[in-house]
Amino acid sequence: MLQEVAASTRPLQAAATMGEVVFNRPVNDGYRHLALAVASSALAAQPGQFFQILCPGQGEGKHVLRRPMSVYRINRAGGRVEFLYKIRGAGTAGLARLEPGGTLDIFGPLGRGFRLEPSWRHIVLLARGVGLATLAPLAEAAVAQGTAVSAILSAARPELIMSADYLREVGAEVAIVTDSDGSSAPEHVEHRVRALIRAGGSAMLATCGSNRLLALVQRIAREFGIAAQVALEEHMACGIGMCYCCVRAFRKGDQVEVRRVCHDGPVFDALEVTSC
Amino acid sequence: MLDLSVRVGGLTLANPVMPGSGTFADTMAQVIDFNRLGALVTKTITPDVRHGNPQPRVTEVPGAMLSSIGIPSKGPEHYVDHTVPFFAAYRPPLVASISAGTAEAFGALAARISVPGVAAIEANISCPNLEANGRAFAMFPEDTEAVIRRIKASTPLPVWAKLTPNVGDITVIARAAEAGGADALVVANALLGLAIDVETFRHRLGNIMGGLTGPAVKPVILRMVYQCARAVGLPVIGCGGISDVNDAVEYMLAGATAVQVGTVSFIHPGRMIEIIDALPEFLRRHGLARAADLTGAAREAEVTDPLWAAVG
């Protein structure tokens, strides 16, 4: 009985390990792409899961919380995990200074990633900004299992679109919408999504990084009666469900539930979420 | 043969290292072996189900973390039905941290969770006393003594009083807890702090004020442990900014019998085990046979200026 209780927690899977920097290069203004050669425990990462990164460059002895970062690419054959990050503060600024050959302390993989059913014929991904980093590995995993993927990438300007090539390379159909030409307007995106669902018989919508896209996903998923998932971001401390820093309110039927983004997510049923 | 065991507040612990309440949970079993720890201290529970404070709940300041979680709690039924059975699979004693708004509610909660599997109660008396205009029990000696006395009358288990550092003279509170019947003191909870974003003019925490924890608070809490250990006859458990084995030893030298490790576990989840692993080597290096020999073993600073005696 007691052993059953103990066994009901997830097995030992997360470990703090050192990754070696393969490259750490700018993608565009503010965003960088980091590839780490890692131990096999880190390669167990699934799309939507994240690592707690111990950002360097803060000076010896300084106390800095780890930064949660969703995995951008899991390259098992190459023994790498990759991240797409934006320089926001002292932590990510330190990360940006890492040179190839340098090492980085990463803890993970953590959290619950995307649900991906083998029976799904087609899925639609809607990403804005760095939300793309979270959805990209889902596209790769979906195509690999025979599920077709359409991705709509949204950004302020065309030069801020990231990873269209990576997504096309893994076999996703990619559409780009921007604020600068007006194509990212909600009604326009909504029209495209409806067309994709009708044409592809889509079983799931996934999004990350925009409240506007989340609202759109919720509306369309309800209308078509299909699954919808969202990856959330929140300030975290521990990343493994102990500190309750990253809790959010969720709607489950008539109930409001409080859940930990790090432990119960970061991927959630988009219909139970109130905002990104 | 080195002896890491310590006697604290009615319990014998296999070693002096345990988690600080609120920085430990069942989920950590993914990362470390709980059987290595001196004790298992769970997150504070309250009589009612609480969701805690609004976001943001955490921010960083130099050398520390500022957080305001607000004691989310699933209540005593969940604790007895789920938390206690979960930790029963592990050998170290389970210490249940509790909090309540009145002395009576504290007593009732202590009685409710005094079930087989719980080895001691840590009374988190740093929370607001609803009968005293919201001031924390542990800010006032009379409230401290009354609430500890009430808890002691409600449970046969050892009671550890967790004090707040947000007081003028913590030794007055320590003595009051001792008078109320506490079996040990935990010194201390978080220092109250504040942080404002100067670009947006917004408070960094949803609850405005938060608790400062991490390396920056260590000298302050270490001083309080030193003062409390000299003021009372009770064992003192040091808790504040411990990041490595040297910090743990420093607390014991200042008078602590055991230590709680907290915020560092958020960054290095394996650190408690690393500290336990490093203790025997530390003892060997200093020719000590028992971890307990460290308690209160600090000596006065060496006089290096012989002439100072003449003027001092």
Can you tell me about this structure?
Chain A is built from eight helices and 15 strands. The N and C termini of chain A lie far apart (about 40 Å). In chain A, a hairpin with a 2-residue loop joins strand 13 (about 245-250) and strand 14. Chain A has two domains: about 10-110, Translation factors (Elongation Factor Tu (Ef-tu), domain 3); about 120-270, 3-Layer(aba) Sandwich (Rossmann fold), CATH 3.40.50.80. Chain A is α/β, with parallel strands linked by helices. With about 300 residues, chain B is of the alpha/beta class. Chain B has one domain (about 5-310): TIM Barrel (Alpha-Beta Barrel), CATH 3.20.20. Helices cover about 30% and strands about 20% of the residues of chain B. In chain B, helix 4 crosses helix 5. The longest helix of chain B is centred in the last third of the chain and has 15 residues, at about 270-285. The mean pLDDT of chain B is about 95. Classes of the chains: A alpha/beta (about 280), B alpha/beta (about 300). The interface of A and B includes residues 54, 236, 238, 241 and 246 of A.
